[in-house]
Amino acid sequence: GAGVSQSPRYKVAKRGQDVALRCDPISGHVSLFWYQQALGQGPEFLTYFQNEAQLDKSGLPSDRFFAERPEGSVSTLKIQRTQQEDSAVYLCASSFGESYEQYFGPGTRLTVT
Amino acid sequence: GENVEQHPSTLSVQEGDSAVIKCTYSDSASNYFPWYKQELGKGPQLIIDIRSNVGEKKDQRIAVTLNKTAKHFSLHITETQPEDSAVYFCAAKRGADGLTFGKGTHLIIQP
């Protein structure tokens, strides 16, 4: 069946630009997670949704990062006024529920120049 | 918060030999421990997981063991094959929290 999809796969932004990254979870998965993976490191948790409710945003590094999931399905991670330190792979994962296995998408590689 | 340490950072084994990767965690409330395999340019792929009420789980050539008292868990891969070459991540989670990952192990299978 279809897995988690993310778009775009690659994004180059000039410093100061805003970007929007999209995640399509597996159909029927109510939980959705965003992670940030720096080069050579493990993924780091950013935020968590259960349906349309954002239940945990403790991992968002600054108020320039914003995520939404208005209809409880597709989610968008927005980064305003991008900085070089935002360069990373942004991963989305979905699961049937908060205590179930998380399945990851291929990620979006963001490069800020 | 949770902290996960993973060792070694690089592991090279001969094809057909076994590979073992070890992780420790700090939060005794963590109750779910998955392992992911990540190939270049791809997202992490779940390969096996274990919950805190189980001490060992096996799936063909892959097994995971958990020692709750010592707060460590390990991944065992037997009869390694070239396609096992990848970066492996352990992770820990409690309740509705997000996963906390280790820094990864680059597994190299020598032909």
Describe the structure.
The complex is a heterodimer of chains A (113) and B (111). With 113 residues, chain A is an all-beta fold. Helices cover 0% and strands 49% of the residues of chain A. In chain A, the strands form 2 sheets. In chain A, strands 2, 4, 5, 6, 9, 10 and 11 form a 7-stranded mixed β-sheet that branches. In chain A, strands 1-3-8-7 form a 4-stranded antiparallel β-sheet, with no helix packed on it. In chain A, strand 4 and strand 5 form a beta hairpin. Chain B has no helices and 11 strands. Chain B has strands at residues 4-7, 10-14, 19-25, 32-38, 45-51, 56-59, 62-67, 72-77, 86-92, 100-101, 105-110. In chain B, strands 2, 4, 5, 9, 10 and 11 form a 6-stranded mixed β-sheet that branches. A 5-stranded antiparallel β-sheet of chain B has the order 1-3-8-7-6, with no helix packed on it. Chain B is globular and about 40 Å long. The A-B interface holds A 4, 33, 35, 40-48, 50, 55-56, 59, 91, 98-99, 101-107 and B 4, 6, 32, 34, 36, 41-46, 49, 89, 91, 95-104.
Helical amount of chain A: under 10%
Portion of residues in beta strands of chain A equals over 45%
Mean of all residue-level pLDDT scores of chain A: 96
- Number of E strands of chain B: 11
- Give the largest interface pair and sizes: A-B, 26 and 24 residues
Characterize the quaternary organization of these chains. heterodimer
Distance between the termini of chain A: 37 Å
Q: How far apart lie the N and C ends of chain B?
A: 41 Å
Secondary-structure element order of chain B, as H and E?
EEEEEEEEEEE
C-alpha geometry of chain A: globular
Sheet with the most strands, sense and barrel status of chain A: 7 strands, mixed
Beta fraction of the residues of chain B? Answer: over 45%
